Amino acid sequence: MVSSEKSEQEGAPVRKGRTRGRPRSFDRATALERALMAFWEHGYEATSVSDLTRVMDIGAPSLYAAFGDKRSLFEEVVQEYGARYGSFGMRALAEEPTARAGAERMLREAAVEYTAPGRPHGCLVIHAAANCSTAEVEEDLRRRRNANIAAIESRIDADVDAGVLPPDTDAAALARYVGAMIQGMSQQARDGASRAELEALAEIALAAWPRVRAHGG
């Protein structure tokens, strides 16, 4: 799925010219979902504009008119992915009573989400960054991953302050450990690991969590 033309990979808008007839109509939500699946499966760099127009079943002029260039489309795809498929982690942190409970739920749900049938395995935000040479895209994905780790660290810090976790807990290292597990589980899922295998991995990861004080739940 690698395009040989630089302008196509970068998603450079086609030169406007004369067109005949009315532009083809299409369902924008359906086209966006198809683009999401393409980027999820192949990553940003390896998904060309011609790949996108084929899976979205639209012409390049329609793609540019509806979504902008390739990078703009990808930005919308990432937003859509976060809302529909990737929100389970931050939701777990927000809804569970402790950081450990949030991390446990996050890891268990990752095992389910990353191996769900009928769609690409792993995490789009993690996988799409692989071999990405477009600096702005790479930086945006890195920022998103680091923001997730920062949210985990903040939750751990809150438990330390509340006395739920020991005062000497290294919140930054523990948060990065959880982030590394999530990223590793994503790659393992893409390599064929099953839900049960990832759940077993989550159990081992949770065993390294600092001992929770009795009154912390």
From TrEMBL:
<dbReference type="GO" id="GO:0003677">
    <property type="term" value="F:DNA binding"/>
</dbReference>
<dbReference type="InterPro" id="IPR001647">
    <property type="entry name" value="HTH_TetR"/>
</dbReference>
<dbReference type="Pfam" id="PF00440">
    <property type="entry name" value="TetR_N"/>
</dbReference>
<keyword id="KW-0805">Transcription regulation</keyword>
<dbReference type="InterPro" id="IPR023772">
    <property type="entry name" value="DNA-bd_HTH_TetR-type_CS"/>
</dbReference>
<dbReference type="InterPro" id="IPR036271">
    <property type="entry name" value="Tet_transcr_reg_TetR-rel_C_sf"/>
</dbReference>
<protein>
    <submittedName>
        <fullName>TetR family transcriptional regulator</fullName>
    </submittedName>
</protein>
<feature type="DNA-binding region" description="H-T-H motif">
    <location>
        <begin position="48"/>
        <end position="67"/>
    </location>
</feature>
<keyword id="KW-0238">DNA-binding</keyword>
<keyword id="KW-0804">Transcription</keyword>
<feature type="region of interest" description="Disordered">
    <location>
        <begin position="1"/>
        <end position="26"/>
    </location>
</feature>
<dbReference type="InterPro" id="IPR009057">
    <property type="entry name" value="Homeodomain-like_sf"/>
</dbReference>
<feature type="domain" description="HTH tetR-type">
    <location>
        <begin position="25"/>
        <end position="85"/>
    </location>
</feature>
